[in-house]
Amino acid sequence: xxxxxxxxxxxxxxxxxxxxxxxxxxxxxxxxxxxxxxxxxxxxxxxxxxxxxxxxxxxxxxxxxxxxxxxxxxxxxxxxxxxxxxxxxxxxxxxxxxxxxxxxxxxxxxxxxxxxxxxxxxxxxxxxxxxxxxxxxxxxxxxxxxxxxxxxxxxxxxxxxxxxxxxxxxxxxxxxxxxxxxxxxxxxxx
Length: 190
Fold this sequence. Notes:
single chain, alpha+beta, archaeoglobus fulgidus dsm 4304 fold, two-stranded antiparallel ribbon
């Protein structure tokens, strides 16, 4: 795999309850070393527009044809605005990886969804969709779901684009930008 493949990392900004929308940042990088582009949009907190917003960011990027993979910080943005990675892959034909530091606790997720959403079954089904894979890194494991590539290809992309820690640079930078814009200064782990 080439070291300079173009990757798009997408993450949302922190928000407080009562907000209607949250910022979403996309970062296009070559591997984990060279920042090429920043994309920006907003999503509805706990809404149902995350898939469309991600698709819009991808479809309107001048780098779309050169992207080798899309990296998402988990399966949701803006609370429980669930992303359908299968739809994104089908419409873009760009492989996609969701990545989280912690193994999702589907029982807790289900409890929260039941309390707050009429369509909780649909959201839970989408969150659970696909196989969760544990990937070992130099530090801690990460948990991923993939579409459009093999586990070994996903591992190669994660290793190639991770400089320090366990989070690929496109996701780490997207997180820093999103939190910096919303809080005035970036903070926290991606």
